[in-house]
Amino acid sequence: MTLKELSNLQYLDSLIDVARNRILALEEKVTADTQVIDGMPKQPGSHDKVGTIVPEIVDQKAKLEALIGQYQEEMQRALEFIESVEDYHVRLILELRFRWCHTWAEVADKVGGGNTEESVKKTCYRFIEYE
User: Which of 19, 90, 119, 127 is the S-S candidate for 64 at Cβ 3.0 to 4.6 Å?
Assistant: First the structure.
């Protein structure tokens, strides 16, 4: 497995977050406004906010489901790769970084033993380069 393939997990995770936030924003947009009954005439041409936003919500939900499916497939491949690593130190680094999406500083902190951000990053990159 390549570094690019492993890194794609983080990008897919971010895309899923963006899609979820977009759906929430659209749902809020549909329900946020309440109708004001003031007896005054409205602008010519009616605008059906619900009719235009709901199809977009449905479309976004379908895209979200596709992203989640893709993420699950990629994660399964990554986990199989990570679990095949015999060196426990390297396996821990890979798991923290790519499965749990920790920053390099967080990985170094959790690995402990005087490891720095740079040292865990180099360990990871060297291992993947030689695989």
Answer: 19
